[in-house]
Design goal:
Elements lengths: L1 E5 L9 H14 L8 E6 L4 H4 L7 E5 L7 H7 L1 H21 L4 E4 L13 E4 L4 H4 L6 H17 L2 E4 L2 H11 L6 E3 L14 H10 L5 E6 L8 H11 L4 E6 L8 H7 L6 E5 L3 H10 L2 E4 L8 H8 L4 E4 L4 H5 L4 E3 L4 H13 L1 H15 L4 H24 L1
Parallel strand pairs: 1-2, 1-4, 2-3, 4-5, 5-6, 6-7, 8-9, 8-11, 9-10, 11-12, 12-13
Length: about 400
């Protein structure tokens, strides 16, 4: 089977979760268990270098650029010109897929473009957060999601949902046929199973000037990630000579630097911004614990990465997270600052608990290995091909 992955949704540094998922998807599709005899990665100028290293005899990485304009703004300023450019881009994509004799295309980023492609289509619709927390989105963002995400869900032959929570939400909110939704927990890159050498960890501790006790939270600076309550809880916990490290995109432009400065906490709460995969893995290995206070998650890739690295995990008890964590971590109410503070004190003071959580986490994460992931994706692909064939015959 010749499988195409459309990576146009990936803008490095802007959509971290989908970026990490897509990289892990491609890595999985190159495994021996993969249903892909040939893989075509369709890239854009901004992300081509991210995917170019995957090119080999089985994998072609081809750029397909669209006009470097903001589509929404362009459509308002000159709808005719924008419409013609979009139609041209869509036709070039369709022609490429025909030329390469693609059997199925996978869109990992919530939308299908163009909707009229005559191919089996698999779509990751990661969540419907805008219907649960509309206050986190502009009216324009909500309108765009309601238009394109809903149409894409209707067009897809198969939907991939990361958790039972997302599947049930798609059925309830969009009336999607449950039969065509495959629950497949998000993949993560296998490099997190590799333990850095002791010298690398020592170098990393010096690089970031890390104390013996620090808590880690890698997440983009979006409102639902709940950074403020975590910061308040960390300061309330009063753990001597400890720090809270926050990595992820969007931090400099967010309100977090001012929030931390206003609390006079800049020495103890540190914003690292985006960091390399190598440093991320090392910080998981060195951290006292990963603390994940998000108010809404389809599935948490950082929790998977942390468990693979043997890092104890404490997480909020909402949406998909209890299903994901099982008994491998501590759960807390993400709106209860004193409760989070208590969890931090407990983790800092109980080495035996940390050891137990690390062992449970490592055992838990093996259930979500790349091999398990790609076998599940293969079933979704098989269903999409069969469903598309049945629609054409009807």
């Amino acid at each position: 089977m010749i499988i195409a992955i459309d990576t146009h949704c990936i803008l490095p540094g802007q959509v971290g979760g989908i970026e990490n998922y897509t990289l892990a998807l491609v890595e999985g599709l190159k495994l021996p268990e993969s249903p892909a005899d040939k893989l075509l990665l369709i890239t854009r100028a901004e992300n081509h270098s991210l995917f170019a290293p995957f090119a080999d005899e089985r994998t072609d990485v081809l750029p397909l650029d669209r006009p470097k304009r903001n589509w929404a703004q362009w459509s308002k300023a000159d709808p005719d010109a924008a419409g013609r450019a979009l139609a041209d881009f869509q036709q070039r994509k369709a022609d490429l897929l025909i030329q390469r004799r693609v059997d199925l295309i996978h869109f990992p980023g919530n939308t299908i473009n163009p909707l009229w492609l005559d191919l089996p289509i698999v779509l990751n619709l990661h969540d419907l957060q805008h219907r649960h927390f509309p206050e986190h989105f502009t009216a324009e963002e909500i309108a765009g999601r309601e238009k394109w995400w809903v149409r894409s869900a209707e067009r897809a032959d198969t939907l991939v949902a990361a958790s039972n929570f997302v599947r049930d939400d798609l059925v309830a909110q969009l009336r999607v046929d449950r039969e065509k939704i495959f629950v497949t927990p998000d993949a993560f890159q296998s490099t997190f199973f590799d333990r850095p050498a002791p010298g690398q960890l020592a170098d990393l501790r010096r690089k970031y000037n890390l104390p013996a006790t620090f808590f880690f939270y890698p997440a983009a600076a979006w409102p639902h990630k709940n950074h403020r309550r975590l910061i308040q809880a960390f300061l309330m916990a009063g753990i001597a000579e400890s720090q809270l490290l926050l990595s992820g995109g969007g931090q400099p432009e967010s309100s977090l630097p001012k929030f931390i400065a206003d609390l006079n906490a800049s020495a103890r709460v540190r914003l690292l911004g985006r960091i390399s995969t190598e440093d991320l893995s090392g910080l998981y290995h060195l951290a006292t614990a990963l603390v994940f206070p998000s108010e809404f998650e389809a599935w948490s890739i950082p929790i998977m990465e942390a468990m693979a690295c043997g890092c104890p995990v404490a997480s909020s008890s909402v949406t998909s997270l209890p299903q994901q964590l099982g008994d491998a971590g501590l759960l807390f109410d993400p709106t209860d600052v004193p409760a989070i503070a208590g969890i931090l004190r407990r983790l800092a003071g109980d080495e035996s608990l940390r050891h137990t959580l690390a062992q449970r986490g490592h055992a838990r994460v093996l259930e979500f290995s790349p091999q398990h992931f790609i076998r599940s994706i293969a079933k979704a692909y098989e269903f999409a091909v069969t469903a598309h064939r049945a629609k054409k015959a009807a």
